[in-house]
Amino acid sequence: IPALPNISWFNVTSVCICSYRYGITNEPLAAKRYEEVLRSMGHDVTITSCGLLVNPAFPWLGASPDKIVYDPEETSYGVVEIKCPYSLRGTSGAELAGLSFYSKLSDSGPRLDRDNHYYSQVIGQMGVSGLRWADFVIYSGKFILIERIRLVQAEWDALKMKLEEFYFTTLLPYLGGSQ
Asked: What is the rounded distance in angstroms from the CA atom of residue 161 to the CA atom of residue 122?
């Protein structure tokens, strides 16, 4: 990765305001619907908001899942990552089968493409938090998809190595002014 001479920090005005606003507006609705669906399936879940999670073992890495969930069917808490894609806002569940997006649909349910950056995001959230599973949620007003993803330790180890390499060899030197 080359040095970052023209780094620009996240600026909300540089993001498509419509899609950003759609996601912010719909995330609480998605979380409520997620809880309703799990409860209807017999999971007496408790969902909690969280902020930035930092693991004391590697405090240079952080994660901010949308929610933390307790499911008594599991042996630990899990993370919840919610996506409310503006591009799918008017799409029904029946229409999803013909569309190409980051989750594939099959008879066994949705499956997030393992090469997609959202998968890395979820693996990172589990790794940083120390939690062993995550629910990846895709929501529009007309459908909800939920995939429970288990942490694969080798995937987290590989991702952590890449994140640390970027942090220590590129970002930290840049922020310290040595590049």
From this structure: 16
- For residue 29, give Cα distances in angstroms to 25, 40, 137: 8, 16, 12
Phi, psi of 54 (to 5 degrees): -130, 130
The topology (CATH level 3) of 27-175 is Lambda Exonuclease; Chain A (3.90.320)
**Cα dihedral 120/122/124/130 (nearest 10):** -150
pLDDT of residue 94: 77
> Residue 76 corresponds to which tokens in the numbers above?
């630990």
SS3 (DSSP) at 18: helix
Q: What is the pLDDT of residues 3-30, one digit of tens each?
A: 445 545 555 455 568 888 899 999 999 9
CB atoms within 10 A of CB 48: 10
